[in-house]
Amino acid sequence: MNITKFIVGLAVACTITACGQVNEILPEVNMDFPAIIIKQELPREMVLVNPWNPVPEDYEADLIHVTNGYYVDKQCYDALNEMLDACREAGNRPLICSAYRSYNTQTWLYNRKVNQFIGYGYSRQTAEVRAAEIVAVPGTSEHQLGLAVDIVDSRNQNLNSSQENTDTQKWLMENCWDYGFILRYPTNKSDITGIIYEPWHYRYVGVETSLAMRDSGLCYEEYLGVD
């Protein structure tokens, strides 16, 4: 399967709850634009992964346990813990609900979603398209880097737009940059990232880059496309 052509063909986007159930239908992602494909000559923490730029074949995550059975790459471990500690000290209740995923895990999640849609009566081709709207095609998920985490408010563990209204997300959106993290899929940028708005998905890129992105207002694809 040609992953690039497959992903570019996606349309309706939806999100899932922390337990994996379809929770909300969101506006369509307009994929009719030039994909930003870059040559991967970036520092390790800045590797771009999206529908058009898969995880580099030579990339290996250096994993360390962070909490509740979740692992992240050692490169972001200290910064992540510092950010979460500061968030808690501010009176919030951040909870990691996803972190590193292996290729095999991503494949299992994707295939499970495909089979669910087939069970709903969709053809395999349509089921694959619908599944990829919810679970990234293996090889194109930032979670395989170990540098991305999904963080929710423990009082609202739904992965949908309601997250942006929680105190935890308000704090993280304002302060994540100081710890080298970015809100990877911001609102009104889906046509560029190829991913729906996710007010829970944070990616480590290093403090210098995160602060520059905060000041620029650019999403990651736009930032990397600037000479």
Explain the layout of strands and helices.
Layout: H1 3-8, E1 13-16, E2 22-26, E3 63-67, E4 70-73, H2 74-89, E5 94-98, H3 103-119, H4 124-132, E6 148-153, H5 167-175, E7 181-183, H6 190-193, E8 201-204, H7 207-216, H8 220-224
Antiparallel strand pairs: 1-2, 3-4, 5-6, 6-8, 7-8
Features:
Muramoyl-pentapeptide Carboxypeptidase, domain 2; alpha+beta; 8 helices; 4-stranded antiparallel β-sheet; disordered N terminus; single chain; 227 residues
Q: How would you describe the shape? A: globular
Q: How big a fraction of the residues is strand?
A: 15-25%
CATH architecture: 2-Layer Sandwich
In which range does the helix fraction lie? 25-40%
Strand order of the largest sheet: 5-6-8-7
| Mean pLDDT across all amino acids | 84
Oligomer: single chain
N-to-C CA distance: 33 Å
Number of DSSP E strands? 8
The gyration radius over C-alpha positions equals: 17 Å
